[in-house]
Each structure stands twice: as structure tokens, then as C-alpha cells.
User: Which sequence fits this backbone?
């Protein structure tokens, strides 16, 4: 039986909480979602943009949560004997608990940020480091003002390594997160024109990403993309902090983690690299040129954290793209099968180009086509239309046969496409869905991608629902 995550006494002390009701001696985990809360966990009633977690406290306790953490001004909403830890502010209480988790931990902490590739890099680090010892990592993309404290507070005291992802939409958001995490190693995967709606320039985005170096422990390391045009800016920012070692990665001749050779396959890649002076050859279980690039940062960071390079590299063969970020699904369509590549979780110009390139590598059948189904890339500000139109060239270079797109930002792009590549256009993803479902045929490879707000996920679900694979049908039958 695994050790408890926290004793209630330690939790209460860390948060300065008042104890109410019949509380358990310890809790096994932390949750903010009644849909996934497990018996024995502590439920934090976080107030979100749309709903207040206090509305779900009773449901969480009914589902088996050991206790709930609630705000003092909401205490009267619950039964007198309800097991509660009462704090002045629930989010601040969670942050205090995260700070206590960091203080008690002896793990090596790695922080990850960047315009693209944060979650994939975090997952690759989790896999690489798990071969060496207990490794804790952020769940999903929990990288914001509540996601980072939650991920940190969930870190077991026994962990040897911890990997936390940090994101931002505005300047000043990463600084408090990195100061909470205090990483030994901080990675910036890349800087790209993302969230331009909130920044005056890409240089300003680089400055915001560089905030991650402010929390690095004295003597720690920064891992920076040497091939990115903003490398010098990030390097300068790192030098002005407690960072003692600046390590670069990429194809550049002076990169400390240097890519020497690579071969891209449809569902994997092989890599030859020189990592901090050591030559290594390894296989990546996930495809894509961008995955190859970020694997250099992964192995450099793992080595800096004290892991064995050879063992970490070997483990990367287990890497697989997660749902919404390149996961692959076979569709049983009339006359045969088609490949669905699900990239629907999010999108920006850099990740969109990477996904289109990945589609260009995908295998197709005798009469098959490579089909891109594109939703809008959001938060790009005045340059939105221009950046969408800029995808015409990647579509051509990757020999994509047919394009479907949704949203007014694609109007210029759609008009610039050769007529033979125009599959369908609509103002919304919902309006595009029937066109996509009617187009897929045996031998096709179809990639669906867009920002989360463009709602491309339902198209993926509709394709899987209409063309379930043999395995999906068996699973559904077994579940009744």
C-alpha cells in the first residue's frame, strides 16, 4: 500500500487551516474535479472563471473525498459535521501547500516552458526519468496559476525527480510560478508568435518565457534552444539570474546538446546526437521533427538532473503522442481503413506547421489522400489573418492533397489555395463537420487541428463515432 500524500495535520499547518468535522488522519491525493475525485482525496473548492468549486463540495464528499478545503466565508453552506479544512482563500491555501511540498522534497526539479512543445517535453522527461527513480510530473497541461500549485502540492515526498510545466498568456505570469517551483533545471523549448494578442512583439514573448530563469535555484541550469532566433535574448536573461550553467540544444554547431543525424518514420524517429560531450543513438516512440528537436533538451536536462544518459535515451522509445496532440486512430471506412491523426487540443503557427509536416509523412493507401482539417489559431491579434495565410506554403511542401478549414481567419488562406486542394470551408467547426465526414475514404490520412476554442475536438469524436475501428466496436460491445 502506498504512503499517504499528506497527513491532515501537515496540510492544516501548511495552509493555516481550521479543522472541522470528523477528519481522516491523512489523504491519498488532491482533486479539484468531482468527476475524477477518488476516495480518500482532498477536494479543493477552487473558484474558476465559470463555476465556483464550493458548488461541488457536497458532491465531492458524497463521491468519497476524505475532506474538502473551503473558504471561511463559505463555511456556513455546509453541514456542521462535514470534514473540512477552512482557509481564508482556497487558491492561496493550495499555493501554501505547494510551497510546503517543495520545502519537504529532496527531488531534482525540472521546469518546462516554451511557445510550443511544453507538454510533449514534460511527458518525455517523465518517461526518461522514471527509468531512474520515482518521477512526479504535471497532469495533462496543468501549467497555469492553479495548475502549477496543484501539480506541486501533489508531489510525493518520496519522489526522486519532479517535472512541472509552466505556461502563460501574459507577461508576469511565469515569474510567480517558477519562484514557487524553484527548479534545478529550466527548459525553454522555443519562442514563437503565440498569444500575440497580448504582446507587442515576439521579443516580448521571449522575455515572458525567460521569466522561468528567475526561480532557478542558485547553481542551477538553463536549457535553451540554440536554433531559435531569440537564443541570445534568452541567454542574456539567464545570465542575469542565479543560473550557473547555460546549456544549448539544436542543430547549431555550437549546441551543447547537438543533433547530428535523424531519420523520420511515420510513427517514430531515430536520432544520433551528442549530449554534453557524449554520443548517443536512440529511438523516439513518437513521430515528428519537433519531437526530435525537443528530445535533445530532454536528455540534456535529465543529465543535468543526475540521471544516466544511456538509460534516459533508451526509455524514449516508450514515448507516445497523447490524445489531442498527435494520437493516431484507425477508422474503418467503406472499402477499407483510414488513418486519423488527432491534433485537436491546441494550435499556433509553429505547432500547426509541425502537424502539417507530420501529415506529410503519414502513410496512405493506393487511392488515399492526405487531408488537413484546420480550425482557427486564436490569440494572434492583428496578425491573425496573415499567420493563417502563411500555412499555404507548408501545405504545399508537405504535399497535402485536400484541405478543410473553419473560421473567418482562414478566408485569405482558402482563397490562396489551388482549387484542387480545396476540400471545404465553413465559418465554424460545427458547420464543417458534415463535409469532413462525407469526404473520408479508404486509404486516407486525415489530420485535425485547431486551437481549443475553435472546437475541432467534436469533429474527431464524430469521425470515431461514425467510423469506429474493429477494436473500438469490441470495446463498446464488452461495455454493453
Assistant:
Amino acid at each position: 500500500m502506498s504512503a499517504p500524500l499528506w497527513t491532515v495535520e501537515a496540510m492544516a499547518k501548511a495552509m493555516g487551516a481550521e479543522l472541522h468535522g470528523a477528519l481522516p488522519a491523512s489523504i491519498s491525493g488532491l482533486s479539484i474535479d468531482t468527476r475524477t475525485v477518488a476516495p480518500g482525496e482532498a477536494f479543493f473548492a477552487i473558484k474558476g472563471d465559470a463555476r465556483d468549486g464550493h458548488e461541488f463540495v457536497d458532491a465531492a464528499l458524497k463521491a468519497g473525498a476524505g475532506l474538502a478545503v473551503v473558504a471561511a466565508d463559505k463555511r456556513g453552506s455546509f453541514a456542521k459535521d462535514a470534514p473540512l479544512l477552512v482557509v481564508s482563500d482556497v487558491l492561496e491555501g493550495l499555493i501554501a501547500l505547494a510551497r510546503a511540498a517543495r520545502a519537504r522534497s529532496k527531488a531534482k526539479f525540472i521546469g518546462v516552458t516554451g511557445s510550443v512543445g511544453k507538454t510533449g517535453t514534460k511527458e518525455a522527461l517523465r518517461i526518461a526519468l522514471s527509468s531512474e527513480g520515482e518521477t512526479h510530473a504535471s497532469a495533462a497541461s496543468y501549467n497555469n496559476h492553479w495548475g502549477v500549485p496543484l501539480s506541486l502540492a501533489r508531489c510525493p515526498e518520496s519522489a526522486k525527480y519532479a517535472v512541472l510545466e509552466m505556461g502563460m498568456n501574459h507577461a508576469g505570469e511565469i515569474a510567480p510560478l517558477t519562484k514557487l517551483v524553484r527548479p534545478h533545471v529550466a527548459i525553454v523549448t522555443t519562442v514563437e508568435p503565440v498569444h500575440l494578442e497580448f504582446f507587442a512583439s515576439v521579443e516580448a514573448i521571449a522575455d515572458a518565457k525567460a521569466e522561468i530563469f528567475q526561480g532557478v535555484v542558485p547553481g542551477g541550469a538553463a536549457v535553451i534552444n540554440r536554433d531559435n532566433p531569440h537564443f541570445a535574448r534568452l541567454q542574456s536573461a539567464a545570465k542575469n539570474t542565479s543560473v550557473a550553467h547555460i546549456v544549448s540544444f539544436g542543430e547549431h554547431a555550437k549546441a551543447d546538446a547537438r543533433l547530428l543525424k535523424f531519420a523520420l518514420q511515420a510513427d517514430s524517429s531515430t536520432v544520433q546526437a551528442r549530449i554534453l560531450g557524449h554520443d548517443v543513438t536512440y529511438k523516439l516512440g513518437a513521430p515528428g521533427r519537433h519531437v526530435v528537436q525537443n528530445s535533445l533538451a530532454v536528455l540534456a536536462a535529465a543529465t543535468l538532473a543526475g540521471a544516466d544518459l544511456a538509460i534516459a535515451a533508451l526509455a524514449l522509445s516508450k514515448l507516445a503522442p497523447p490524445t489531442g496532440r498527435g494520437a493516431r486512430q484507425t477508422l474503418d471506412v467503406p472499402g477499407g481503413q483510414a488513418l486519423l491523426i488527432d491534433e485537436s487540443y491546441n494550435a499556433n503557427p509553429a505547432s500547426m506547421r509541425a502537424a502539417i509536416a507530420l501529415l506529410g509523412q503519414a502513410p496512405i493507401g493506393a487511392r488515399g489522400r492526405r487531408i488537413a482539417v484546420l480550425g482557427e489559431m486564436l490569440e494572434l491579434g492583428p496578425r491573425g489573418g496573415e499567420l493563417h495565410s502563411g500555412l499555404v506554403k507548408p501545405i504545399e511542401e508537405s504535399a497535402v492533397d485536400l484541405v478543410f478549414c473553419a473560421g473567418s481567419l482562414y478566408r485569405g488562406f482558402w482563397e490562396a489555395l489551388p482549387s484542387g486542394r480545396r476540400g471545404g470551408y465553413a465559418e465554424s467547426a460545427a458547420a464543417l463537420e458534415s463535409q469532413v465526414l462525407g469526404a473520408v475514404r479508404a486509404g486516407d490520412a486525415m489530420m485535425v487541428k485547431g486551437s481549443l476554442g475553435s472546437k475541432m475536438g467534436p469533429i474527431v469524436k464524430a469521425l470515431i463515432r461514425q467510423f469506429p475501428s474493429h477494436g473500438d466496436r469490441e470495446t463498446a460491445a464488452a461495455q454493453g
Notes: The mean pLDDT is 94. The two ends are 32 Å apart (CA to CA). Residues 327-476 form a domain with the Protein-Tyrosine Phosphatase; Chain A fold (CATH 3.90.190.20). The chain has three domains: 6-93, 105-318, 327-476.
